[in-house]
Design brief:
15 helices, 7-stranded mixed β-sheet, 18 strands, globular, 38% helix, single chain
């Protein structure tokens, strides 16, 4: 029998189902039952939210690993390689392991049609189960209630925040979005909400199922002062936990606060020094991800951020505005057609001195002309380029010492920028992480 490579499998999965997104658990549940998939690990944390899922998952996984646990993480989408979606003890799954997992799911599904995401989710569960992990952290792909990840009952369910995105599937109000996200709650199992004002639909869903819901600002919170911060929350027994006088992190503190509360519900061990080390060692490619590059003899700073909706744009703007630089801020920007362009523009008005816009390498992209028109209406200085790589290179050409280039708007944007940085480094330039 000729075995498929990982590339072959991924091309096959893209053709397997008539539509890319087909919400519902029935198909996945049937195939999971045939595979005998129940719980992929002894402890399960499921994370949903409009933004911040990736870094919250990474924080939780790192803290659990700090307890000596074997940990798996399932996330999406990936930036450069599919393997990034399935991590086992801090390492991406190998091509060979993923191919084995896809083969197992393929054999079990028979005539059941699965989407790309459903096949990937079941393959991840199969791999986690084979490794007999202590814990897994699962990032919801879309929504929560009808997402394939929701096949598994979580010991702790996490909602990072509640904003408007993916309106075609989640609805156009915070109430409808919160209802879908509350679908990951399980009766009597605790849940954490990082939104300090969750809609009534989430509160009602928790009450119906007797879910102990811990809400930021009421049950846990963080406080910031100068260059330090503190966290207070509760453990599974309702007793207070705290971390005081903490150093700043490379990732959003809001997500660290949510992750700490989830960890406090999972683990009885509470070692402040160990937790601080775990938080400080957490990194996520493409989230407030600063890199340095030497271009034409000038050291430049490039920030990569996958933020692609108004909530993420507002957070990015806040981070940038509180950090003064000696030069200018130059944007490299692309956006998908189903994203709220004007909401993103409003959040970032006045942040950048000049914009370079380009289409993304997907039919779902907004045109550069649309982006340029929206920015020019706001009086921004805009230049159009045929692609993100060209836009980034030209911003590097125009940049001076002290300037910062910010690449954002989509996973596609950041992936293109990372590929450009890799090419630049391999051709004799210098590019390295910040």
């Amino acid at each position: 029998m000729i075995r498929r490579s990982l590339t072959d499998w991924l091309e096959y999965l893209e053709q397997l189902h008539p539509v890319a997104i087909d919400m519902g658990l029935e198909r996945s549940r049937e195939v999971a039952a045939r595979l005998g998939l129940t719980r992929p690990a002894r402890q399960v944390v499921t994370v949903t939210g409009t933004n911040g899922k990736g870094s919250t998952c990474a924080f939780i996984a790192r803290m659990l690993a700090g307890q000596g646990k074997t940990v798996g993480v399932y996330s999406s989408p990936h930036l450069l390689r599919y393997n990034e979606r399935v991590r086992l003890n801090h390492a991406d799954a190998t091509d060979e392991a993923l191919c084995e997992a896809f083969e197992a799911v393929e054999q079990a599904r028979g005539s059941v049609s699965l989407t790309y995401f459903e096949m990937g989710t079941l393959a991840a569960f199969w791999l986690f189960g084979r490794e007999a992990l202590d814990a897994v952290v699962l990032e919801v792909g879309l929504g929560g209630r009808l997402d394939a990840v929701n096949l598994v009952d979580a010991d702790v369910a996490v909602v990072t925040n509640i904003g408007l995105d993916h309106a075609e599937w989640l609805g156009t109000t915070r109430e409808s979005v919160a209802f879908e996200k509350a679908g990951i709650f399980r009766p009597t199992k605790p849940a954490v909400c990082g939104d300090s004002d969750p809609p009534a639909s989430m509160l009602e869903g928790a009450a119906r199922s007797a879910v102990p819901l811990l809400i930021r600002g009421r049950d846990f919170d963080l406080t910031k002062e100068a260059n330090r911060w503190c966290w207070r929350g509760k453990d599974a027994e309702g007793f207070s936990r705290e971390l005081l006088d903490l150093p700043m992190l490379n990732l959003p503190l809001d997500n660290a606060a949510v992750a700490l509360q989830a960890f406090a519900l999972l683990e009885s061990s509470w070692n402040p020094e160990q937790l601080v080390e775990a938080l400080q060692n957490t990194r996520i490619t493409g989230r407030l991800d600063r890199r340095s590059v030497c271009w034409r003899g000038v050291e430049l700073t490039i920030m990569l951020d996958v933020g692609h909706n108004p909530h993420a744009a507002a957070f990015l703007a806040g981070q940038l505005l509180q950090e003064s630089i000696s030069g200018r801020r130059l944007a490299v920007f692309g956006l998908l057609a189903d994203k709220d362009l004007f909401g993103v523009m409003n959040a970032l008005e006045g942040v950048f001195d000049a914009w370079a816009v380009a289409p993304l390498p997907t039919p779902r992209s907004r045109t550069a002309g649309e982006l340029s028109s929206a920015l020019m209406e706001r009086g921004a200085a805009v230049t159009i380029y045929p692609g993100i790589s060209e836009a980034l290179q030209q911003q590097c050409e125009h940049a001076r010492k002290g300037d910062e280039i910010v690449v954002f708007g989509s996973f596609y944007c950041v992936a293109e920028a990372l590929a450009w940085l890799d090419r630049h480094a391999s051709s004799g330039g210098h590019a390295f992480g910040g």
